[in-house]
């Protein structure tokens, strides 16, 4: 980006941040949510924001219809997240963290008359953004929680409350894979350092987020490793998780999270895919439709979002996904075809 463009992007960011601060100062009662099937950054940014808003005297309802994953239940405030909203609940403004896409927000999210202005905080690239009266988005931020820290600073909530610091740290650790991904910058590490200064215990967070597995998850991993097929001269690895495997391992759906990374770990693999069979659905005539989710990961310069888009999904260059109504076998075949196209082109 040219220096001039970077300068104007920064001015725009400052303008939007001022708008967010004005909205907070003008209200008293807020709703805070994040995308469904929340992850460390979704929950971390949401809980950190709630803590910051309470620090300036606001009344806050945190809301997500999906359960908190076991690995994130250590976050203070996660036990108080409402799974349903009281009927007719009304807010001065509502905050949506870590997505700008309506389809990723709970159906129960209140209509404009009750939500108040909708403020979106996000760090994903611009496409499929269709939500928010005020959209504070910065795709250079390693996690949405980084934007929450900027809001806290702008509100004068500094230093961060301890529970917010822990939530931000969990968000950053999740979205950077433990300060490993290329989204990790010097600024990320400085942010991490400032959170340790606030008393965060790095091992408590890392152990909760990445380790502390239930035995059933290890058993599921063992079975999933056995399904890895390496194709295209070692450049493509495809892994499969079926309902039968989940059942035999005694595992839950949330335990599938992250398994695709094991396929990416293989030296030489440039495209890793996980085909994950979800619960079947029934169409209007009562016929059973199998549903699969595809998770894609790239190593090196591959852009796996192109595979995802070809399958009707989307995502980032290095992490993308799609949802297909077909059997695992049929979906695996389609994934292989699209991955081959990408590898041949690249
Ligand atoms: Mn995120």
Give a quick set of tags describing it.
alpha/beta, inorganic pyrophosphatase (n-terminal core), Diaminopimelate Epimerase, Chain A, domain 1, 6-stranded mixed β-sheet, 5-stranded parallel β-sheet, 40% helix, 19% strand, globular, binds manganese (II) ion
If you had to describe this structure to a student in words, what would you say it looks like?
The protein has two domains: 3-210, inorganic pyrophosphatase (n-terminal core); 215-345, Roll (Diaminopimelate Epimerase, Chain A, domain 1), CATH 3.10.310. It is built from twelve helices and eleven strands. It has helices at residues 3-26, 40-55, 112-115, 144-155, 162-175, 186-197, 202-210, 215-225, 243-249, 260-264, 305-310, 328-345, and strands at 29-34, 59-63, 93-97, 118-122, 134-137, 229-231, 236-241, 271-282, 288-298, 314-315, 319-324. α2 (40-55) links the parallel β1 (29-34) and β2. α4 (144-155) runs antiparallel to α5 (162-175). The chain starts with a helix and ends with a helix. The model has no long low-confidence stretch (mean pLDDT 94). The chain binds manganese (II) ion. Manganese (II) ion (MN) binds at residues 41, 98, 123, 143-144, 175. Manganese (II) ion (MN) binds next to loops.
């Amino acid at each position: 980006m040219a220096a001039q463009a970077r300068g104007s992007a920064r001015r725009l960011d400052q303008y939007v941040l001022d708008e967010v601060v004005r909205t907070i100062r003008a209200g008293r009662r807020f709703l805070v949510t994040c995308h469904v099937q929340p992850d460390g950054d979704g929950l971390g940014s949401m809980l950190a924001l709630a803590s910051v808003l309470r620090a300036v005297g606001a009344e806050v309802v945190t809301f997500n219809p999906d359960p908190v994953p076991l690995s994130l239940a250590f976050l203070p405030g996660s036990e108080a997240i409402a799974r349903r909203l009281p009927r007719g609940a009304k807010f001065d403004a509502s905050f949506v963290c870590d997505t700008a896409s309506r389809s990723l927000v709970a159906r129960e999210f209140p209509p404009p008359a009750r939500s108040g202005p909708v403020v979106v905080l996000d760090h994903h690239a611009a496409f499929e953004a269709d939500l928010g009266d005020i959209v504070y988005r910065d795709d250079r931020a390693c996690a949405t929680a980084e934007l929450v820290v900027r809001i806290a600073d702008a509100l004068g909530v500094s230093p961060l409350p301890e529970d917010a610091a822990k939530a931000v740290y969990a968000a950053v650790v999740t979205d950077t894979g433990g300060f490993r991904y290329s989204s990790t910058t010097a600024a990320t590490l400085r942010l991490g350092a400032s959170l340790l200064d606030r008393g965060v215990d790095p091992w408590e967070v890392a152990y909760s987020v990445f380790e502390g597995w239930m035995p059933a998850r290890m058993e599921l991993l063992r079975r999933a490793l056995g399904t890895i097929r390496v194709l295209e001269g070692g450049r493509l690895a495809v892994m499969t998780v079926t309902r039968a495997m989940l059942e035999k391992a005694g595992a839950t759906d949330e335990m599938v999270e992250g398994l695709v990374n094991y396929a990416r770990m293989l030296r030489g693999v440039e495209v890793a895919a996980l085909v994950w069979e979800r619960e079947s659905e029934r169409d209007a005539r009562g016929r059973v439709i199998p549903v699969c989710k595809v998770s894609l990961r790239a190593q090196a310069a591959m852009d796996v979002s192109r595979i995802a888009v070809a399958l009707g999904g989307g995502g980032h260059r290095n992490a993308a996904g799609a949802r297909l109504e077909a059997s695992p076998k049929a979906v695996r075949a389609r994934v292989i075809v699209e991955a081959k196209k990408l590898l041949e082109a690249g």
